[in-house]
Design a protein that fits this description.
globular, alpha+beta, 2 domains, 257 residues, Umud Fragment, subunit A
Length: 257
């Protein structure tokens, strides 16, 4: 049984148990727009990898129901899941155990989320270990225990919105970013294989952009927005000397809703 089938069964179970209507269940899972949740159930948009974890968190009965399904159908861990790990410099724990194992032997990791409203505070406090205490986390399926520092950033603004194009990132979507260590900046970034990046800039703040050029000699990046309105969102160059952190976005088209 696929994950989307498990989710559909879980929603049906919740409705039968009078937990709520489909609209109400969607709201419990963070979907303020009923049509957004319907699109997930109808498989019109990619399945958010954290959705099963969110449904399991609604109550213990539905958690047991889902785990029983997964065990009965002998589901194996999915290799396409990306490893997530928090990106603070001291490796603070999110919930005592960053990675924990489900009864079916699959792995889940709690990933801290930087909401859009907190982008400014992140820029000021990302080097402080206390900043990460109390952040909301999202449980994300992972294939195995990789090394690396990861964060989830909630997108704000419309610079990467391109309606009608698959390459479109909408306000409110959440992107998984892998922190690229500073020592790697002196080498050519993999801009041809990574569609977009999260740049933490001392003056510009946090921006989500495509990098179209990396000038190693000048230590400069050319940043490009996917929004077709180039009067409002022109390309521009930043110096790496003014950059605090760089995250390459992990699979931006398998985004969190």
């Amino acid at each position: 049984m696929t994950d989307i089938q498990i989710i559909k069964n879980a929603v049906a179970r919740l409705k039968n148990d009078k937990v709520g209507t489909q609209k109400e269940i969607g709201r419990m899972l963070g979907y303020t727009n009923e049509s957004s949740f319907s699109q997930v159930l109808n498989e019109k948009v990619p399945l958010p990898p954290d959705l099963i974890g969110k449904i399991m968190g609604l109550n213990e009965d539905i958690k047991k129901f889902i785990l029983d399904i997964k065990l009965d159908t002998s589901l194996q861990p999915k290799n396409e899941a990306k490893l997530i790990r928090r990106a603070d410099p001291y490796g603070l724990e999110a919930n005592e155990e960053k990675i924990y194992q489900l009864p079916d032997d699959s792995l889940v990791m709690q990933v801290p989320v930087i909401p859009f409203r907190a982008w400014g505070s992140y820029l000021r406090g990302h080097a402080d270990p206390e900043y990460y205490e109390g952040l909301e986390t999202i449980p994300v399926p992972v294939d195995h225990k990789h090394k690396g520092n990861y964060l989830i950033f909630e997108v704000g603004g419309e610079s990467m919105k391109n309606p009608g194009d698959r390459r479109s990132i909408w306000p409110g979507e959440k992107l998984v970013g892998r922190n690229l260590k500073r020592e790697h900046w002196k080498y050519k970034l993999h801009i041809s294989s990574v569609p977009c990046w999260i740049i933490v800039h001392r003056e510009l703040g946090i921006v989500v952009k495509e990098i179209t050029n990396h000038n190693i000699d000048k230590a400069e990046l050319t940043l490009h927005s996917w929004n077709p309105d180039k009067d409002e969102y022109p390309d521009y160059i930043v110096s790496l000397n003014d950059v605090e952190q760089i995250f390459n976005v992990v699979d931006p088209f398998n985004k969190f809703g």
